[in-house]
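Sanity check

After download, print the first record. It should look like this:
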Amino acid sequence: MKIYVALLVLVLLLVLPYVAKTYGLKNITASDLPDEGGWAELSQGNLYYRWYIPEHENGEIVVLVHGFSTPHFVWDQIKNFLIERGYKVLVYDHFGRGFSQRPNIRYDKAVYVESLNELLAHQQVSQSVHLVGYSMGGAVIGHFTQAYPTKTKTLSLIAPAGFMPGTQAVNRLVTLPVVGEWLGHMFAKNMLVSDVSDTEMANIDDPLAMEKLDFISQVSTQLSYSGYVESLISTFRYFNLFDAQDAFSAVGGEHRIPTLAIWGTQDATVPYSGTVHMLEAIPYAELLTIEQGGHNIPYMQPSIVGSGIVDFLDRSILSHSAD
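Expected structure tokens:
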């Protein structure tokens, strides 16, 4: 009898916190969308996108591809550097994040690559574009360029995933059915706000940096929608974020896509040691190192990142014109 009571108590201890975390989560609908931007109806569901059009266009398009968990708000400061230099900017949210729908699908490499490809087709973008990818977004644009090299003009990789071959992908518990979802809902917020921990924020002095409380508020909004945590867990299971060497070797080999990498020396998520593998795959890549920079450099050090990207793009365009 004592064993049954103990098991019941254990089940309650596991189930009740999960119910408390998931009860009342809402499905995202069109009424949740901001006034700007909209949904693109793609094969897997509705994907949120938004264009930013400069007053004086230079004829070039930049597509900003966010990372694993934080949606397009990470580009709020960087996009202004691009717009001021005449670049049309397209931002979007991956499925499962931001204002995009959260379909119950397998979030593997193909989902991320093809959603970007379908979005460009939906928006009738026929010219090659400049791709900027942050964290997981770096791996996404690497795989995209391997699949569609003629659609990519340049790559800008910010603290990119994909350069840690041999790394244990994730804790094996996350890959277990039910267990992974339970862990995700219990500990997601702690993981998501780690990029604004005291350690990560210690060396931030950029006047354009995102406010810490604003970041936490935006993350909390994500957690209020059903399917968000599930999209993260599925991505952990089915998309190898640690080794994209084959894709980047194709970028730097047969395709010779001009590439910039921006990396912080104190990145605890994607260690700076990954620059060694990046330069092995793309030997000609430019590397902009941010001393003491963490994984949060797009939104906490946008002055360095934004100016670095536009300088690289401007030079790439001039070089292409000279050819």
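If your output differs, re-run the checksum step. Summary of this record's structure: The two ends are 82 Å apart (CA to CA).
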